[in-house]
Amino acid sequence: MSSEIDAPAATLDLGLNWHNRFAQLGEAFFTRLHPTPLPAPQWVGASLAVADLLGLDRAWMNSPEALEAFTGNCAIAGSEPLASVYSGHQFGHWAGQLGDGRAILLGEVGTASGPQEVQLKGAGLTPYSRMGDGRAVLRSSIREFLCSEAMHALGIPTSRALCVTGSPAPVRRETIETAAVVTRVAPSFIRFGHFEHFSHTGQHEQLRTLADFVIDSFYPACRDAPGSPYAALLEAVSARTAEMVAQWQSVGFCHGVMNTDNMSVLGLTIDYGPFQFLDAFNPGHICNHSDTGGRYAYNRQPNIAYWNLFALGQALLPLMDDQQQALDALEPYKAIMPAALQRRMNAKLGLVEVEDGDAELTEDLMKLMAQDAVDFTIFWRRLSHAVTSVRAEPDEGLRQAQPGREAVRDLFLQREAFDAWAARWRERLFAQPGFDATTTQARMLRTNPQVVLRNHLGEIAIQRAREGDFSELARLQNALERPFEALPGQDDLAAFPPEWAGQIEISCSS
Ligand code: AMP
Ligand code: MG
Fold it and tell me: Averaged over 373-395, what is the pLDDT?
C-alpha cells in the first residue's frame, strides 16, 4: 500500500533501528500516509535527553536535516508513517470514531531503553481529521513539549517530547495563530479508545489482535496469569493507571481532558492539552475552560480514571467469559489508587511508612489548605524546609522560619488551625523510629518540587517565543528538567503566580 502514496522527494536516513510493529497489525488499524510539509520551519525547542534516548546524535539535532525531518518535510528511511484509528468517550458520551486527526506515527525505533514510537503531532490532515485542519498551534505545542519533559523529571509516567518546530503557516483558532509540530516519543501511543473502537464496531478479531499485541509487548506476565489473560491485562492497566493518577494528585496536576481516547494503555500521561498545575489549592479546580460541568476537576480525576477503566473493561468484554470477570479485574483499583496516593502524600509529609490516622492527617491539612487557598507547590517546599526546625517538644517550631526562609505558617490565614495541625504532624514525625530531621528534609526536597509548569510560566515562554525569542522557553525547560533543585537566578520560576495568572483561560482549542 505504501507504493500508492506520494512520498516526499527527499529521503533521509537518521541511522535509527526501525521495526514498526504497530504497522504490522493490519490495515484495519490505520491508514498509511505522509506528513504534509510546512514552509520555513524553525527550531522552537529540543530535549537532548530524548535525543539520547532515541540514539540521535546531539550535534545532528542542530542540523537543517533534523529541522526538516521533524517538521514532516522529508521521508525518513525505515519509517512507515501512518495515522491510527480509534474511538472513545468524550466528556462521558460515546463519540464514535476519532483517530489520529493530526498525529502521524513515523514508526518504532529500537533503543537501549526498549522500543520507542515516534510521532509527529500537527503534521497535517489524515482520514481521521474530521472537522479539524490537522495542525497544532505554537502555543499548545510548547505547552505539550515542556510538560512532557517536566512530568518525566518529576518521575511521573509520560510520553516524552524530542522537539518542537514552528512554521509561519497560519492556523485558524479563535484568532489566527501559527503552526508547530511536536515530535512525541513513547513505547506505545495505544489508548483505551483503540480497544473501544474495535469492540464497538464489532471487529472482535482485531480486538483480540490488539489485546494480544499489548500483552505480548508490554504486559507479558498477563499471559501466565491464572484465568483470562485479558482480565489480567485490564487489572494491570488499572494498577498502572492508579499509580499515575496518584502521582498527578500528589503534585497538583490536572489533566483537563480525561476522555478515554486520551488514556494510555501503558498508564502514561498523554495528550497534553488544557492541563494545569494547581497554584492556590482548590480541590474542585477546573483547568479546562471548555469543561463547563467540571467533569475533569482536580478532585474528580481518580474517579474519572476508574470510569475510563470501566469503559476499557466494557470494550474487552468480548474477549472475556462474563462481565463479572471484568468487574473483578477493576476492583483492585479502588484500593490501589488511595493506597498509592497516601504513600505519595506521606512521602511529601516526610513520613516513611503509612499508618492508621495518616489519611486523616492528610485530609485535615488539605481542608486547611483549601480554606485558605494556600499555594500548593510553595506549601510543600516550605514544609520541607521547615522540618529541621521542628522540635520533639511542643514549642514555637513552625512559627519561625529557618534563617533565609519564609515560614510555612505564613501561608495560612487561620494560623492557630495550622499550628494545631502542625503539632499533630510533629508528633507523627517524631514517633518514627530513628527519625532524623536532616535526612527527612533531604528526602522531602527530592519529593516536593521547587518548580512546576505553572500556567503563567508557560504563557511567558509562549509570548516570548511568538516574538521569535526562544531563550525563556529554554530557561524554563532547564528548570523543569531539574524540578527539585533551587537553581541560582531562577527564584522567579518558584515564586507565587502573578495576579493575572488567574485570568488565563486554557481550552480544548489547540
Ligand atoms: P483531543 O481533544 O486533542 O484529544 O482531540 C480529540 C480528537 O480530535 C482526536 O482524534 C484528535 O486527533 C482530533 N483533533 C484535535 N484537533 C485536531 C485538529 N486541529 N485537526 C484534526 N484533528 C484534530
Ligand atoms: Mg487526544
Answer: 90
What is the rounded average pLDDT of the residues 61-84? 97
Q: What is the pLDDT of residues 416-451, one digit of tens each?
A: 999 999 999 999 999 999 999 999 999 999 999 999
Average pLDDT over residues 488-508: 95
Question: Is 356 an annotated catalytic residue?
Answer: no
Q: Let me know whether 316 and 212 are in one domain.
A: yes
Query: What separation in Å is there between the alpha carbon of 122 and the centre of ligand 1?
Result: 10
193 close to ligand 1 (CB < 6 Angstrom): no
- C-alpha dihedral over 255, 258, 264, 268, to 10 degrees? 20
Any atom of ligand 1 within 6 Å of the Cβ of 508: yes
Please check whether residues 417 and 274 belong to one and the same domain: no
Band (160; pLDDT cuts 50, 70, 90): very high
Atom of ligand 1 nearest to the CA of 136: 19
Is residue 353 classed exposed, middle or buried when 0-12, 13-18 and 19+ CB atoms within 10 A define those classes? exposed
Do 44 and 67 lie in one domain? The reply is: yes
| 405 and 378 within one domain | yes
Catalytic residue among 100, 261, 271, 279: 261
Contact 101 CB / ligand 1 (< 6 Å): yes
| pLDDT tens figures, 10-28 | 899 999 999 999 999 999 9
Contact 151, 269 (CB under 8 A): yes
Q: Is the CB of 180 under 6 A from ligand 1?
A: no
pLDDT of amino acid 122: 98
Secondary element (H or E) of residue 165: strand 160-172
pTM of this prediction?
0.97
Instruction: Count CA atoms closer than 13 A to 364's CA, side-chain side.
Output: 15
Strands 75-76 and 11-12: parallel
Which one of 33, 102, 137, 509 would you pick to mutate in the ligand 1 pocket, going by the greatest count of ligand atoms within 8 A of its CB? 102
Predicted local distance difference test score (pLDDT) of residue 323 = 96
Q: Identify whether residues 24 and 166 lie together within a single domain.
A: yes
Question: What integer pLDDT is reported at residue 1 of this predicted model?
Answer: 38
C-alpha 101 to ligand 1 mean position (Å): 5
**CB-CB contact of 308 with 260 (8 Å):** yes
What is the DSSP secondary structure assignment for residue 191, as one 8-state letter?
A: B
